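Thread title: Can someone regenerate the structure for this chain?

I was given the following input by a collaborator and told the matching structure tokens would be attached. They weren't. Posting the sequence so someone can regenerate them.
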Amino acid sequence: MVSREVCDRIDRYILRLLQESGPDHTAWNLETIRKGGSTSWNYVDGCMMTALLALYQITGEKRYFDFVDAFIDAFVGEDGSIRTFRAEKHTLDDINEGRVLFDLYAATGKQKYRLAAETLKKALDAQPRTVEGNWWHKEIYPNQVWLDGVYMAQPFAALYQKTFGSGDVSDVVRQVENVRLKMRDEKTGLYYHGYDASRQAFWCDRESGLSANFWLRAIGWFSVALADLLEILPAGEASEKIADIFRRLMADVLPFADAESGMYYQVVDKPQAEGNYLESSGSSMLAYAMLKGARLGFLDARFSEAGRKTFCGIVDKYLSFTDGTLNLGGICLVAGLGPENNRRRDGSLAYYLSEPVVQNDAKGVAPFLLCYTEIKRTQA
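Best answer:
Regenerated them for you:
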């Protein structure tokens, strides 16, 4: 059990975040704050909005829903246009925040939310694809598939088909199966961060097209995507295909957990490497996936226990409360592969261990809160 004291402190922290945030400024997007930029339509806020809606569903506290509604409403025009969203950038990251549009539309009946979902669906329809049929991660990453992108786009695509489309999720399943086929390491069962179908990126292996290492947060995003898809897809062949990939990944990644804390390392399979560390955002994601997978009946109870151990490990190692403020440490600020003009991001072990480790950035806070929603479900 997670103590009531810890839960109460996290609850108070979430409310403080909401009090200090709005559509024009958030207290959690550290990259934007550091750059002095204004709020935009982005995946980090999307992850936070998803967590807040989950908290509303669990607790019934309408202030969570009202915050999300007001936040998204400020970005969406009556014609379904989305402030700061640029379809011509062809970036899957910008699809993720659209996940909450379906619940908001169902609850409020605001037509602009449905129209905004159409806007994002049209953007996906125009997204370039690899020869295998997978969406490019971004326009600036031609022919590349990243694990992160599965989370950014596939749950939205499945929700759209379920809510407004024909219900045909075959393209979603096919793209996930391609990731399994191309990006899984048969020896460890882990997934590589990126794949270049053209074999042209400076960071990829010229034969396989794969990047060189297993980055925790990328595997985390992929795991969350699979768990979320299993909640969205109806029972049947499509769901079973995703469930098989999900079960195998959870079973394969579990042995890499740190025995004491239950957490996972920034570069998953190299715990002894100098400078490697237990990272909180990806650990939160894997804990969330395991807890949710067990709750939905796709995983057995040992995964629920493992997920809870990981969450408690994060709390013990990286969560602190000072003067009423929660601080979450151990967060990799950002990591990626390229583009061509940024060759430092080469996918090497040294690269992943060189990125800044920070406190309180939403790429760690949002997954932690998502994981917390699963903890609250089990303790409700």
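The chain has one domain: 4-379.
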